[in-house]
Design goal:
It comes from Pseudooceanicola sediminis. The chain is α/β, with parallel strands linked by helices and 262 residues long. The protein is built from 10 helices and 7 strands. Helix 1 packs across helix 10 and helix 8 packs across helix 9. Bound molecules: NADP nicotinamide-adenine-dinucleotide phosphate.
């Protein structure tokens, strides 16, 4: 299947590792050019150096902290400078700390809003007009299975990502007629540094070895294992493709069956 991405330019945030990097890799493999972002020049350079040689020439990077108030305009400008346009925006951010809803620190939550929600909305609004004018665009936002089935000990993640789901669903209805699709991807448990850190925190809470926690967690997933980041990237590349032109306003689960609700 030809995804039709060879003339397309994507901006992928949170792309120095994990899910964002896997999405960038999948888009590059389908022929798109990609601007990767993260907070650290060095980590982005390393991520690009580890890509297959044939893909390296098709990417560049800009280091920006999404928590900075001017992150969105800086990123939009830098990504647009390269090819004159951004056709595909992949909104991916760092995740908030775990905690208990009843003892949450609202100041921390406000800071997390500033790094996970506010820049995503601003970046989307900055790049949307060009997509609408050209009659083609793809906006993908990485959320979590927690937006369908809230995850214990992740109250900020459950709440803040649900804000984005509500925003993106509303936006999808406004811009579908202009050829711009807007979708959310909900990972269950995909093996990344973030999943390892959360397993570490759960092991500490339970006073158990982290391997026991990870084994029990994998066993609770119908697929019997954590997902591979490339399995996640492949779904994102499809949603970004020309072939996915009639998929919009959806929250697509990539969870090995972990979410039990229909
Ligand atoms: N993996 C899963 O199974 C899973 C499940 C549900 C939800 N999620 C969510 O999906 C997102 C990606 O997950 P992941 O597993 O790929 O996590 P990850 O491996 O920790 O990657 C996070 C990425 O975001 C970047 N980042 C973090 N904070 C940033 C900031 N303030 N400004 C700019 N970039 C920032 C990191 O780059 P630098 O550190 O270099 O800046 C990195 O590239 C996270 O929000 C995570 O909570 C993941």
């Amino acid at each position: 299947m030809d995804f039709g991405l060879t003339q397309k330019h994507a901006l992928v945030t949170g792309a120095s590792s994990g899910l964002g990097l896997a999405i960038a890799r999948a888009l590059l493999a389908e022929g798109a050019t990609v601007t990767l972002t993260g907070r650290s020049d060095e980590r982005l350079r390393t991520a690009i150096a580890d890509l297959p040689e044939a893909l390296r020439d098709k990417c560049d990077f800009t280091a920006v902290d999404l928590g900075d108030p001017d992150a969105a305009p800086r990123l939009a400008e830098a990504a647009t400078r390269r090819t004159g346009q951004v056709d595909i925006l992949v909104n991916n951010t760092g995740g908030p700390p775990p905690g208990i809803a009843s003892t949450i620190d609202p100041d921390v939550m406000r800071t997390q809003y500033g790094a996970m929600v506010d820049p995503v909305i601003r970046l989307t609004l900055a790049l949307l007009p060009g997509m609408r004018e050209r009659g083609w665009g793809r906006i993908l936002t990485v959320a979590s299975s927690g937006v369908v089935q809230p995850i214990p000990h992740l109250p900020m993640s459950n709440a803040l990502r649900s804000t984005l789901v509500g925003f993106m669903k509303t936006l999808a209805g406004e811009v579908a007629v202009d050829g711009v699709t807007v979708n959310v991807i909900a990972p269950g448990r995909i093996a990344t540094a973030r999943t390892a850190a959360l397993d570490g925190a759960a092991a500490e809470r339970a006073g158990k070895p982290v391997a026991d926690i990870a084994r029990a967690s994998a066993a609770s997933i119908p697929a019997g294992r954590y997902g591979d980041p490339d399995e996640f990237g492949a779904v994102a590349a499809f949603l970004a493709s020309k072939r996915a032109s009639y998929v919009t306003g959806s929250t697509i689960r990539v969870d090995g069956g972990a979410i039990r609700a229909v």
